[in-house]
User: Fold this.
Amino acid sequence: MSNDMRSTAATAFLHSRRRVPVVGGLLTLIGAVHVASTSLVYPEGVASVLDSRVIASIEAEPDVLALRSAVFWYVTAGLLIIVIGALVIWVERFTGHVPRFVAWALLVVTAWGVLLMPVSGFWALLAPVAIALRARPHRPHLPHHEA
Assistant:
């Protein structure tokens, strides 16, 4: 790779890092709110997990398995949304947009959640999905390198 091409690629990367990663930021925020709201949504479940000292608590008592499992999956889903949001932030900063397949995949997950649980937070995912689907991909211009 020539010095000119490296310089242009670096400039394009730095320029794209200035873009505000809206979709990834919204996903990260949604995930953080999801995790933070656990004790409001499942107060008895959180208390039950804490009462059993957290470690290995989910399956420790069969009579509260469903309650503790709901807490576990609720927090786990929020953490995964944060991870996905962080990855999308990275992609947005590097490329300037969210890849179409990611936007469509998020739409499928959102539709799945809304259809199965209409009274839920899945509706919040519509905002980042709509932004991702409406955005025009930005492709930084890199000079053609001839061998």
User: Anything to note?
Assistant: Confidence is low (pLDDT under 50) at residues 14-18. The helical segments are 3-17, 22-36, 38-41, 43-51, 65-95, 100-116, 126-134.
